[in-house]
Amino acid sequence: MKKRQKGKGLTPRAEDFSAWYNEVVQQAELADYPPVRGSMVIRPWGYGIWENMQRALDDMFKATGHQNAYFPLLIPMSFIEREKEHVEGFKPELAVVTHAGGKELDEPYVIRPTSETIIYSMYAKWVQSYRDLPVLLNQWANVMRWELRTRLFLRTSEFLWQEGHTAHATESEAEEEARTILDVYRTFMEEWMAMPAITGLKSEAEKFAGAVRSYACEALMQDGKALQAGTSHMLGQNFARQFGLTFQSEAGREEYAWNTSWGVSTRLVGGLVMTHGDDVGVVLPPKLAPTQVVVLPIGRSDDQWAVVAEKAHRVEAALKDRGIRVLADQRRHLSPGAKFFEWERKGVPLRIEIGPRDVEKQEVVVVRRTSGEGEARKESMPEAAALGGIEDRLAALQRQLLDAARARRDAATCRGEVSSVDELGTLLDEGAGFVYSGWSGDPAVEERVKEETKATIRVIPSREFRSDTAPVRCVGGGAASMEVVWARAY
User: Using one digit for the tens of pLDDT, what is the confidence trace for 157-178?
Assistant: First the structure.
């Protein structure tokens, strides 16, 4: 398909969701393709969204007792190879440095795909006693996983993320940590991203390489595909044993620590686009929008422009004083229509238009990026009332986006007995997103479903996301031992 040029209309989502996504990410100036295979350049608008995500998550991590640190980009190959399951899971994606300083290295270094190995080797140096535990650290970093098929934000060879790594004295403490972080992620996704997620346990086939148990937040995109938006892993003592991470217990015994790791990445920006975007462009939740309100002065003559530009400046200053992220677009070389187009495409939640007559009447025009049912998208109102109600309007937009996303997810969710793999495939082909069914726990059934329908078990759902009545029949035949959620996924 021929790429649409900047400034042109987007491919409708219903026509080709994938093409729409690729176009909107570039036309909204979120990211672009560099000359480095599989990587991306995150442009200021896209990075501004990521920065707001960072700030919110960082505050939430610190509120639960975690601190930030930083660990090296390069990891000795011998470290990666110590944990067999871990290295096998990542081996196809490793980028390896073999030469540096003009000569071949004695030992190759891996550009970190994740940091468990090097972090737990350091914890082994720092921890001697139970009094040194827990260790609750997080780092904001870039990682590299040599992906063959890439898509901006969703899957790139290099991406940005946070990775938390903790050490605990007992298994129960580590398990509680993994579940606590899962809840932090889900809260962030709902309250900040307006992206409802279901949570649960990953199957053995889908868990993180080297983990005992993996938990995930799964969100449903508008095209009916699932996005694994965040994961939290209870690692047991696997890495502690490989790196000698031991401590003297309160009873005086030497014991191995219990570890967890957890992370979310710039994939969340892609998830945000696919959850809320429309055929005009990106739609941003106010809490994460780099600019929450854009003020547009509209005047043709020099005299008119002087008046409306001054008013726009004063409106901008008044809103800034209240902590609102606001920008007065004073670019005179662009027409009002071009500005409307740009800011709609970028997803700014609110637009305030000020023309000469508005100044005379002490009014402004307030335009919502989206509106609720029965609610006018564009309103002319007294300036004092408009500015005084900005916070309430932003909060209402945030709620509306979450409600709409939850309604779409629920409408695309199928519950009840699914009698066969064929029935599961039919439901997915007919537009189902999440499909609940019974499962015996047999990996052969899981593999069969994957081969025949392209769906995977997204989660064994947490209690609050389980059906009221547990299914009794496995989708592959026979009795079910648990309920699972299937979906085709990114």
Answer: 999 999 999 999 999 999 999 9
- Residue 81: closest CA among 243, 199, 193: 243
Instruction: State the CB neighbour count (10 A cutoff) for residue 351.
Output: 20
In DSSP terms, 138 is beta-bridged to 68, 164
CA gap 117, 121 in Å, rounded: 6
**Distance in angstroms (rounded) separating the CA atoms of residues 290 and 285:** 10
Judge contact between 474 and 467, C-beta under 8 A. Answer: no
Residue type, 472: V
User: In sequence order, what DSSP letters do the residues of 64-129 get, joined into one string?
Assistant: TT-EE----SEEEHHHHHHSHHHHHHHGGG--EEEEETTEEEEEEEEEPS--HHHHHHHHHHH--B
Tell me the chain's radius of gyration from C-alpha atoms.
Answer: 25
**Own/partner pairs, 10-14, CB within 8 angstroms, 24+ separation:** 10/279, 10/280, 10/281, 12/279, 13/222, 13/223, 13/277, 13/278, 13/279
308 touches 295 (CB < 8 A): no
Mean of pLDDT over the chain? 95
**CB–CB of 396/379 below 8 Å?**
no
Instruction: Give yes or no for residue 23 having a pLDDT over 80.
Output: yes
SS3 184: helix
Distance in angstroms (rounded) separating the CA atoms of residues 267 and 258: 28
What's the CA gap between 59 and 50, in Å, rounded? 14
* Both tokens assigned to 103: 């000569």
Cα gap 332→187, rounded to integer Å: 42
CA distances (Å), 486 to each of 10, 275, 280, 427, 436, in order? 31, 19, 31, 11, 6
CB-based contacts of 239, cutoff 8 Å, min separation 6:
83, 86, 116, 117, 120, 210, 245, 259
- Helix, strand, coil shares, percent, the chain, to 5: 40, 25, 35
Strand (E) or helix (H) holding 306: helix 302-321
Task: Give backbone dihedrals phi and psi of 59, rounded to 5 degrees, phi first.
Answer: -65, -40
Q: How is residue 131 written in tokens?
A: 């009094």
Q: What angle do CA 234, 235, 237 make, to 5 degrees?
A: 130
Pairing between β-strand 254-256 and β-strand 293-297 as defined by DSSP bridges: unpaired
- Where residue 2 falls among pLDDT bands split at 50, 70, 90? very low
User: Which of 205-209, 245-249, 292-296 has the least mean pLDDT?
Assistant: 205-209
